[in-house]
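Design review, sub-item: ligand-bound model
Attendees: FS, YL, KQ
YL presented the inputs for the zinc ion complex:
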Amino acid sequence: MPDILDIAVTVGQNFSQERQRQFAQNWLAALIRNEWPNSFSALFPAVKFPLIKAKASAGQGQWSEAPFMAFLHGEITSTPQAGYYPVILFERGFQSFCLVLAQGSHSLTELFGMRKTCAILKNRAPILRNAAPAWRQLGFSAGPFHTYSRGNTSSTEVADDPWAASIAFGKRYMVKTPPSLQEFRSDLNSMLELYEEVVRRVGRLFLQEEQAAEQLAASGELPRTAGLDGALKVAHHKTVEWKHRNSRLVKQVKIELGCTCQGCGVTLSSAYGRIGADFIEAHHLTPLAQAPDQGVELTAKDFAVLCPTCHRIIHRLGCPTLDFLRETVNPKVRAFYEDLMT
Ligand SMILES: [Zn+2]
Ligand SMILES: [Zn+2]
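KQ shared the predicted structure:
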């Protein structure tokens, strides 16, 4: 049976050519999909990295631009579309391949588009590096690596390629002059140990951020302008507001601030009659990033009262100041409500 390195070299030598042929039942696609992950199990006994699974792909139903083999930690991800993981990637032209710690980008790309996603992944890469500081000493470098992106084929810019932008560290090997199996095994062993350290330190942090952003997107409250930071801020705001929704504190806020929206100026009772009188919502104002995680004593001063529409809008804006919200509201709307109430 060919070893993990034999297969990498075979793939490098044959992929461009085989990619011109039919995908179904192709020998190289089968080698990548089946034998390659098996060669990982053959290299390390299951007890060495019990939670790490190798997953290789040459495409789904049709050839992808380039194949890969990812090493997925069960606590972080079960798919290369999400989370972070070591992966064997080929570089442009198939002259070289690399073993890198990279990140999935699927949900981020859906939420923020390609450019912003690359920026987010690039910002996360140092967090991964710092979580396992021995990477340099173990012979890895921070790149750049010129891998194939899974989407856009025309661009060669790392800035436009989520996979390349996402790489924390790695090592390059030449297809023509590959390392010895012993050297590669040792590198892979180091990489997987570093990965386990990153998992212990960073855990599911990024995934939680993405889930928060996804939930906001589903409710139409994902900030338009902000990146992931803005999404997290808004998600945090929502949690505080949710916790206090029916509390005495929020009743106090409404008593102190009244039931006129501080954004657009509507008083819901004048728009809808008595049924709308208490429909005003408490919006949490204090920037939570500045507050400690636990035991913050909130008072009525930490809130504003907003009509449901303004409340949704201020979240969508990424929770800016009340002044910013007021400037966003068309003056004609404010004039209309003032007129209504006199
Ligand atoms: Zn309003
Ligand atoms: Zn709010």
